[in-house]
Specification:
By secondary structure, the protein is mostly helical. The protein has 23 helices and nine strands.
Length: 604
């Protein structure tokens, strides 16, 4: 069992141990301080409280004792939310320019493709989709905290400070949402181009002619193409009208090139990594918590709708590609996925699978199960990725498997070379991303054997990640020490990676959501519970017929049995196992009454 609450509190304890020095909040992370790393550190605390009400700390009177015990380095019951508000304020002050504009310095994952080169000052200020997506999650989590805390504050000075924090968070959220809009990209290209060759080669799994493949692809993508025409810049629109051309859609690494802003450099070419990253942030804009708390202002609601359109179209595009060629998702299962940006990569397969999972979650929500025909091939892909990633299968000494995790894959950022050396982005979240998608797919399936299989593999992934925790220093219990799994590459690491720690926290939030959801109902168990209930109700009716009417006091056994039957009837659809257990007790008691009556009759 993953035990998300227990593990989250352990992580919080480790975070407080290494992040507090007296009354000061520090970032002991591996990279130099930047907007992404500092936000990830705070999101590790704020996001679970945003998503899981039992872990909230904005209201001192409602804080659970174990939550306060872990957060006690920040102060007493009333001091914890006040201290966190101050930490959020300091973060916003640090990453806001003098003119009030939020800034998003990208941090250590941005690095030159040539290890001997050095980023220019302009490149160190580049805005990225990673920063925007993390800013959305951070801002929403912090807004929920500040809004709740403000309701309990009486002092005018603190209330005024909270209003200022709220306004700064609003500005940061709005800027991040605009940044995600400016980073959406549609790339149109001829069939015989490099990108066209790569796409058609990936599709050609069944020895069909190139022309037949392209014609089918055009036909399947026509609804997506039509939906995109009104969303793209005028320079791209003519290419979408020309159906002789192929296209891709998704998010580039940052705001696409523009004459209006010299720091908008990204080529309008979708990246699978940044597409999956953008989607993880955008989905928080439509979470039940965001909607229930009314966290979005009027302008933000408009931006959210624009992002939602692009989110849906992108999901449709990549899902159509993933299952191109048949109902068994042959293209996705033909690993590794081929892309122009990273050649062949299991990482790319995982990122396409992530987009597909987003699409299934959008279609079926929290209260429906996805069709077995959709989930069976997708689950098989995730299980194979766990094996190919050296998690459920020992990695070959000659393979590049370990590099998926340590140091990760460096993907190019086309367009970044306009202000210096060509830059790349290091992605190293293979294991937590795979575990997150596996739990989400398990949540969507009603096939209990398949769900059990996914959860079994998920347990192996959890074990893999827990073996990668730091084992010494003040940050012990956080991530990442890959040597714990793959050999002593960095045996004495003591500084935490907030990048990986934050992603593990996201996984635990998904696991907590699963735990809080109603249990999956087995059709066989539901049928059995219903049959037992009908028998028990019939026997109860017979028992009441055998009892004389009247008397000054109620018949206690029958009152108790009737209450148990009523409860079993109420929950039989949602919790058939529990209902069946209640009915079993009723049947035993009814049989005892019938046996006693039979013996009395024989004795008489």
């Amino acid at each position: 069992m993953i035990q998300p609450r227990h593990r989250l509190l352990d992580i919080w304890r480790s975070i407080l141990s290494c992040s507090t020095e007296g009354r000061n909040w520090v970032n002991p992370g591996r990279a130099s301080r930047n907007s992404i790393s500092d936000a990830e550190q705070l999101v590790c605390l704020l996001y679970p409280a945003f998503k899981i009400s039992d872990l909230g700390f904005s209201e001192p009177d409602a804080m659970e004792p174990d939550v306060h015990e872990v957060l006690s380095p920040l102060g007493d019951w009333a001091g914890v939310p006040k201290a966190l508000a101050g930490i959020i304020r300091d973060y916003l002050d640090m990453y806001t320019a003098e003119n009030g504009t939020p800034v998003f310095p990208p941090g250590g994952s941005l690095r030159p493709l040539d290890p001997k080169a050095q980023a220019s000052p302009e490149q160190s200020r580049l805005e990225t989709v990673e920063a925007f997506s993390m800013a959305v999650t951070f801002s929403l989590s912090a807004l929920a905290f500040v809004k709740s805390f403000a309701k309990k504050v009486r002092g005018e000075e603190l209330a005024a400070s909270l209003r200022g924090i709220h306004e700064a968070l609003d500005r940061r959220l709005t800027h991040a949402m605009r940044g995600l809009l400016h980073s959406f990209a549609v790339d149109v290209f001829p069939v015989d181009s490099t990108r066209g060759d790569t796409l058609v080669l990936a599709l050609g799994q069944r020895r069909q002619s190139r022309r037949a493949l392209v014609d089918r692809l055009r036909s399947e993508m026509r609804p997506i193409r039509n939906g995109l025409r009104d969303l793209v810049p005028p320079s791209v629109a003519p290419g979408l009208v020309d159906e002789a051309l192929l296209f891709e859609c998704g998010w580039s690494w940052g705001p696409v090139r523009s004459d209006d802003n010299p720091l908008h450099l990204a080529e309008p070419v979708p990246s699978l990594y940044f597409t999956a990253t953008a989607m993880d942030g955008i989905v928080d804009l439509f979470s039940p918590q965001t909607l229930r708390l009314g966290l979005l202002g009027r302008e933000q609601q408009t931006l959210a709708q624009e992002l939602h359109l692009r989110w849906e179209l992108t999901q449709g595009y990549w899902t159509s590609l993933a299952r191109f060629g048949g109902a068994r998702w042959p293209l996705l299962q033909n690993m590794p996925w081929r892309t122009v940006e990273s050649e062949e990569s299991d990482y790319a397969t995982l990122q396409v699978a992530s987009v597909v999972v987003h699409n299934l979650m959008r279609q079926h929500g929290d209260d429906e199960f996805a069709p077995v025909d959709d989930l069976t091939p997708l689950a098989a892909v995730l299980e194979e990725l766990a094996a190919r990633g050296g998690i459920t299968r020992r990695p070959s000494d000659r393979s590049r498997t370990v590099e998926l995790h340590d140091p990760g894959e460096l993907i190019p950022l086309p367009g970044s070379e306009r202000h210096g050396p060509a830059m790349g982005w290091l992605m190293a979240d293979y294991a937590p991303m795979l575990l997150k998608r596996m739990l989400q797919v398990a949540r969507l399936t009603s096939d209990l054997p398949r769900r059990d299989r996914l959860m079994s593999v998920a347990d192996e992934l959890v074990d893999h990640l827990w073996r990668r925790r730091l084992s010494r220093g003040r940050a012990a219990g956080l991530w990442d020490a890959p040597g714990g799994v793959f050999g002593a590459r960095e045996p004495h690491a003591t500084a935490p990676s907030w990048y990986l720690t934050e992603r593990v926290v996201e996984v635990l939030v998904v696991a907590a959501t699963m735990v809080k959801a109603p249990p999956v109902r087995s059709p066989q168990l539901l049928e059995t519970a219903g049959e037992k209930l009908r028998e028990a109700e019939h026997l109860f009716a017979q028992e009441t017929m055998s009892r004389p009417v009247g008397g000054s006091s109620p018949d206690e056994p029958l009152v108790r049995i009737e209450a148990a039957l009523r409860r079993a009837r109420d929950i039989v659809d949602s919790r058939p196992g529990t209902s069946a257990a209640l009915v079993d007790e009723v049947l035993r008691e009814l049989d005892g009454l019938a046996l006693a009556r039979s013996r009395a009759a024989r004795g008489g």
